[in-house]
Amino acid sequence: MSYTLTLYDADGASQEQHRQAEQRFRLALDEALGDESLVAPVYTAYLRIVRTYGETPDLDDLSDAERAIFEQWQAAETAAVAAAFGPNRYMGDAMYEIAF
Known about the structure:
The chain has one domain (about 5-100). It is about 55% helix and about 10% strand. It has helices at about 15-35, 40-55, 65-85, and strands at about 5-10, 95-100. Helix 2 (about 40-55) crosses helix 3. The radius of gyration is 14 Å and the shape is globular.
């Protein structure tokens, strides 16, 4: 399943720089999860976990499968943000939207 990505990071970037950052984000996210087709199901499951347990759940409250999904998404997101904005970028500063 394909997805669309929108990055929100004005910081004076040109349109081309913004496009390149989105491309780096997508490539890193797809690679970290294994394939573009896995973004939708993993992200959907991650959002369900966050809705149920909150943004920083006690990992002991999660099932093994939930913990695996939660940690997998967080690692993929971190890799994607670092690829798009650089390794010193704070996660709270990175705004993006994924739609299916």
